[in-house]
Amino acid sequence: MITIKAYAKINLCLRVLGRRPDGYHELETLFQQIDLCDTLLFSEADQALTVSSSHPDCPVGEKNIVHRAADLLRRFSGCRCGVHIHIEKRIPMGAGLGGGSSDAAAALKGLNRLWRLNLDDAHLHQLASQLGADVAFFLHGGSALGTGRGEQLQPLQLPLDYFGVLVYPHFPISTAWVYQNLKINLTNSSKNSKFYSLTDLVNDLNSWQQGFTNDLEKVVFEEYPELDRLREQLATAGAFFSRMSGSGSCIYGLYKTRARAEKAFLGVGTSYQRFLFSPISTHLNSAETV
Prior knowledge:
By secondary structure, this protein is of the alpha+beta class. The chain folds into two domains: 2-155, 2-Layer Sandwich (Ribosomal Protein S5, domain 2); 163-277, Alpha-Beta Plaits (2-Layer Sandwich), CATH 3.30.70. The protein has helices spanning 65-77, 99-114, 121-131, 135-140, 175-181, 189-192, 208-211, 217-223, 225-236, 258-268, 282-285, and strands at 2-19, 25-45, 49-53, 82-88, 143-148, 152-155, 163-168, 241-244, 251-255, 273-277, 288-289. The strands form two sheets. Strands 1, 2, 3, 4, 5, 6 and 11 form a seven-stranded mixed beta sheet that branches. β5 and β6 form a beta hairpin.
């Protein structure tokens, strides 16, 4: 049996630059992996591919991205082995934290080892890009600038000397719904991207609140004003930076001391699902046991 941890991410910035000819949106985003994680357990089987989960709302079988990752890897490699994968879910679903994509990346890495396929990073990235725009990021994790649909990655060294509070409001948000309702002309990202680079600001924590935006917040906050109030609450509690992650629904605040983060965590109250977290570098992303 192999066990692999699949870590979540937050988007420190997400700028939508326009619509692409293929129907997707052109993005600039800063990914930062955090220590909130799911755990995947891989057990050898004869030929069947099966997936189970600890979360009742998590799909199993062919509807699960982990199942699709396993099937894609098997067809690509010609391997005839089977596997049972159990997902211990801790990352909220539909929260903008990349839980499904991280699970898919963990499946590719775990099965590459379990089935002794010895595929290199280039092949794994090729498969990851077929599963989702941000799956490739989770193969290495850490911090990265994502462009294109988010799949073109430039690893970065971002500051990690802060502590975070993550708040999940107990409801998911559909990424497809957010982009369908996004009005590009309501954002200034395409214009702003010509004047400053995200990488110019990464080392100055005090510039993040002004310089790092999430263009999807306007759409989501108009429909769910409660999330904007949560973001403001975290800011009032001393966060030097507070944003919605990805397309939501999770809101996070970043604090320069653990004590401030813990105080903000307690101030949110128990009506929401709350997590204390820290940013992580790539070396934690490969954590696995046999």
